[in-house]
Amino acid sequence: MSDYLKSEIQIIENDIAITQIHTTDISLDSYPSLKELLLEAKIAGDIEIIQQFANQLEAYAKKDNIDSFRNISNKLSAAVDSFDIGECEVLLNMFKS
Question: Which of 9, 19, 41, 83 is 20 to 30 A from 92, comparing alpha carbons?
């Protein structure tokens, strides 16, 4: 396929802040609608649902001034834009179910 399509190989380095966030296991217990959307995104693996979750996460980040939500939302949106399902899974799994 790469013979027919222009492509670039990009090396993406892990962000240490994301690794630190992962160790805290962020809870969504105070955000039941987010928790429900997260579960749907994990089960379906649908890129559109994952983007909806990222958008809702960003909205709560702005509303409640939660930096970890903002950071993950930005990373998740970037992963969706690049169709990096593996990274999406890693980011979605940072939250307690």
Answer: 9
How far separated are the first and last CA of the chain, in Å rounded? 38
Residue whose entry in the numeric block shows the structure tokens 């609608």: 33
In a domain, 61, yes or no: yes
| pTM listed for this prediction | 0.73
pLDDT tens column, 20-67 = 444 356 889 899 999 999 999 999 989 999 999 999 999 999 999 999
* Residue at 40: amino acid letter: E
Strand-pairing partners, residue 26, are: 95
Distance CA 94, CA 34 (A): 13
Residue with tokens 């179910």: 97
Q: Phi, psi (5° rounding) for residue 95?
A: -100, 140
Is-contact 26 68, C-beta < 8 A?
yes
